[in-house]
TrEMBL record:
SUPFAM superfamilies: Transmembrane di-heme cytochromes. Keywords: Cell membrane, Electron transport, Heme, Iron, Membrane, Metal-binding, Transmembrane, Transmembrane helix, Transport. This is Cytochrome b561. It is a multi-pass membrane protein. Coiled coil: none annotated. Pfam families: Ni_hydr_CYTB. It is found in: Cell membrane. Belongs to the cytochrome b561 family. The lineage of its organism: Bacteria, Pseudomonadati, Pseudomonadota, Betaproteobacteria, Burkholderiales.
Amino acid sequence: MTMAHSRTAARYTGSMIALHWLIALGIVGLLALGLYMVSLPKGLPLKSTLINLHKSLGLTIFLLVLLRIMARAAHTSPPLPPMRAWQRAAARTTQGLLYLAMVAMPLSGYLGSSFNRFGTRFWGIALPKWGWDDAGLRERFFGLHEVLAWVLIALIVLHVAGALKHQWIDRDNLLARMLP
């Protein structure tokens, strides 16, 4: 096997790389937007505009995450470089928790929105409500949505720190698997 071929074989496909970075940028943007919009006072017209934008972007990223999960199920991932068993377990656990959070986060937001009188609009299209106007259930789902946001932030920091450790300390070129 030539060096060029081994380098290519150890990378994700172009579509998986594109999905990774599109989802990553989308999630970081959604987290920033979410933290900003909840700090705004109630009744501000800008706040409702941002909330609707957040819902549409969140559901769009959710659909991309589902597409990525299906693509991952259909294709094998490139092998990890040699590393200790605990590092491999930590990488798998972090990645699994990231996927779980990327699915649970939009579901909790959508369900929270289903228990209010406004519902959810996806780029202007009203989506079905799965509930009724119930402040208690709405707050539970939005509370879960907020906790998941902080968990997702922690997982992203851990994921990025692990990738940078492999790149700069271990120098095993792990980051090249996901760079465009």
